[in-house]
Write a structure and sequence with these properties.
This protein is α+β, with helices and mostly antiparallel strands and 148 residues long. The chain contains five helices and seven strands, in the order βαααβββαβαββ. Strands 1-2-3-4-5-7-6 form a seven-stranded mixed beta sheet, with helices on both faces.
Length: 148
Amino acid sequence: MKMIEIRECDDYEAAKKLILEYSKIIGAEACFVSLDKELSDLKGFYKGGALLLGYDDGNPIATIAIRRNNDDQAEAKRLYIKPEYRGNGYARPLLNAMLDKCRALQFKEVRFTTKPEVMSIGYALYQRMGFEELENDGETVLMRMMLD
């Protein structure tokens, strides 16, 4: 099985391209309300958190981000893998890298919102990894994991 290399963002242009690509997914538009603000200053937007990139053979192919809500709580965002790289088992290592980074930043809880209808594979993985549902309005689900 191929391995994904995950590291802190060192190429904001590559990150910007991946996030823009993600924003074009049909049904995901509502997840991108402050996209212009986010893209104009990725470093500032994720200050106190992190932006991680996933590489396959040196090519940036995936993102996951951590946005600081407060001292104890972070929000995971922007889990995206380029379509041609999906199915390689890259999502779980990305999520684990994000959780490790949240622990290193001393957050006690990580939350994220997802749309099960649009991102059913991701949603199933979050459940298998132990994220719990806090809210579900039928379209959008708020999930969280307590970190120890």
